[in-house]
């Protein structure tokens, strides 16, 4: 009982620092694959805590969230997401494609409840880096065109000045 309370307290403490989370269910996932998932999630500024699904209801009760899925039995994990939920869901979606026994159960983005369908749609969104690159490109493109126009004008002015200078030299 004390061990279970300690686990739930650890889950609650993690939730306080990262208010977005994703719940997953898995069975028969070997340790090397789970370690690889931990590293991939770490790269996405997220972390997974593995526990029995039966402890999920206690955890969700402690954070005043209703039980939003039937946890069942077996092993599961709570992924505590950093700033980029898209990156974390992409990592998980890729892992799900490789492992049939690994499934989304749901999640929360702040106070908003996320269904399995929501999580799958989020995984299809472009990542933070890609959005930043598109934004920079959309700003850069008109600036490059504007620079070309200004260079063309200065080139024409320079040609006019050279022509005027040549004409003045011929008139002398």
Short description:
The chain is of the alpha+beta class and 172 residues long. The protein contains six helices and five strands; from the N terminus they run αβαβαβαββαα. The longest helix has 44 residues.
Question: How does this model look, in words?
Answer:
- With 172 residues, this protein is of the alpha+beta class.
- Helices cover 60% and strands 17% of the residues.
- The protein contains six helices and five strands.
- It has helices at 2-17, 31-43, 56-62, 85-98, 116-124, 128-171, and strands at 20-26, 47-52, 75-81, 103-109, 112-114.
- A five-stranded antiparallel beta sheet has the order 2-3-1-4-5, sandwiched between helices.
- Helix 1 (2-17) packs across helix 3.
- The longest helix is centred in the C-terminal third of the chain and has 44 residues, at 128-171.
- The protein starts with a helix and ends with a helix.
- The mean pLDDT is 85.
* Strand runs, count: 5
Largest sheet composition? 5 strands, antiparallel
- Overall pLDDT confidence: 85
User: Helix tally?
Assistant: 6
Distance between the termini: 106 Å
User: Which structural class is indicated by helix and strand composition?
Assistant: alpha+beta
Approximate strand percentage: 15-25%
Radius of gyration: 28 Å
Series of secondary-structure elements, N-terminal to C-terminal: HEHEHEHEEHH
| Range of helix content | 55-70%
- Shape descriptor: rod-shaped
């Amino acid at each position: 009982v004390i061990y279970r309370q300690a686990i739930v307290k650890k889950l609650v403490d993690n939730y306080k620092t990262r208010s977005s989370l994703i719940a997953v269910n898995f069975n028969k996932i070997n340790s090397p694959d789970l370690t690889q998932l931990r590293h991939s999630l770490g790269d996405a500024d997220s972390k997974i805590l593995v526990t029995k699904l039966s402890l999920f209801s206690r955890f969700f009760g402690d954070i005043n969230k209703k039980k939003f899925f039937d946890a069942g039995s077996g092993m599961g994990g709570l992924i505590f997401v950093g700033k980029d939920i898209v990156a974390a869901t992409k990592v998980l979606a890729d892992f799900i494609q490789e492992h049939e026994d690994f499934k989304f159960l749901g999640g929360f983005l702040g106070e908003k409840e996320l269904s399995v369908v929501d999580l799958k749609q989020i995984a299809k969104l472009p990542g933070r880096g890609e959005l930043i690159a598109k934004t920079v490109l959309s700003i850069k493109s008109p600036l490059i065109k504007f620079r070309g126009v200004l260079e063309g004008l200065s080139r024409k002015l320079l040609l006019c000045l050279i022509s005027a200078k040549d004409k003045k030299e011929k008139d002398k």
